Amino acid sequence: DGRTSDVQRRQMTTVDSPNVHVVAIDGTFDDCQDLVKAMFNDAPFRERNHLSAVNSINWARVMAQTVYYVVAAEALSGPLTFSVPTGNFGNVLSGWIAREMGAPIDDFLIASNTNDILTRFVNDGDMTTREVVPTLSPSMDIQVSYKSHNFESPDMSQDQESLDEYAGQAWFTLSGDVNSDMVRRMFDAVADMTEDRITTAHILIQSNGGYVSDGICLYNYLSKLPVKIVTYNAGAVASIAVILFLAGEERYASDTSRFMVHKSHASAPHGARPDALRIIVEGLQADDARTEQILREHVQLSEEHWRTHAYSDLHLTASDARDVGMIHGVKDFIPPRGQRVTNICPHSRRPRAPHRL
Predict the structure, then answer these.
(1) Which backbone phi and psi does 210 adopt, to 5 degrees?
(2) What is the pLDDT of residues 97-143, one digit of tens each?
(3) Which has more pLDDT, 143 or 328?
(4) DSSP strand E in the chain: where?
(5) What percent of the chain is helix, strand and coil (3-state, nearest 5)?
(6) N or C: which end of the chain has fewer CB within 10 A?
(7) Is this prediction's pTM over 0.90?
């Protein structure tokens, strides 16, 4: 497809040794690397065919490149700063190992192209994979930088599993009033999730409520996405925010967190006519019917709970919430080390219609 130069193609296809076979695939460098790793992970196949590798998937390659940095630093009378165009991180990892061993190296500049997973990893701890964008530097067109996890954890026994375990997952925080601003920000966040091929979104929610229609909109939207939503409560989720929380396919709460459920309420202007008051009451009753339907689909409240809810605020601890099925377990929101946490919705207030829950 033109992403390999004619010189590179000839280097690979003109070798006439009988034990050299060139294989081309329709895909990216990451696809090639996945195939290589799959072969090495198949122990019987690997041993039967005496497989080895000469790229940085092999520690011997990294070790040999480490020598280059040691020799260069001594020859140029360091301390030095190396600028390394990189995709898989193997080369610059060698330099980092050399520095850890005592080579006079001050720093490293990691150069990347638009496939910037390394830039995002180093600057923000973000290793979210995105679509590979073809460029003029195909050896850098990588979205699974498989040696970078060795930089984070130099123990070479921690292999690709540390990345594979969280592939497709992302962590978010969502706070503030449930209102049109939150809806807009959530729509934007989900658009980014789908672009980044997120399959599971972990969302920590902190909200004391807001507008009924906005909360129900978010519930209906999130609960039917092709993305698995996992919701968490680490402090307080109240009013219509409880309906938003129930959009999670899995739901968890910290031991000291609380939930509060109550009916909707509204204020009427002084001197309002009876017909205006009737319209407000009918609107509140419609809101309560909608939220109660969703509650009953997910939560098994006792008759005593429903009686409390009819006339007052219903407060539930994390243990109470687990007992009635509001949450699947008592568990804290703990993003894995090295994973980026994105704040979806900072606290925001906007004037709206009078119906609130």
Answers:
(1) 165, -135
(2) 999 999 999 998 888 887 777 777 767 766 666 777 777 776 676 66
(3) 328
(4) 80-85, 105-111, 169-175, 200-207, 228-238, 250-253, 258-261, 314-317, 329-330, 341-345
(5) 40, 15, 40
(6) N
(7) no
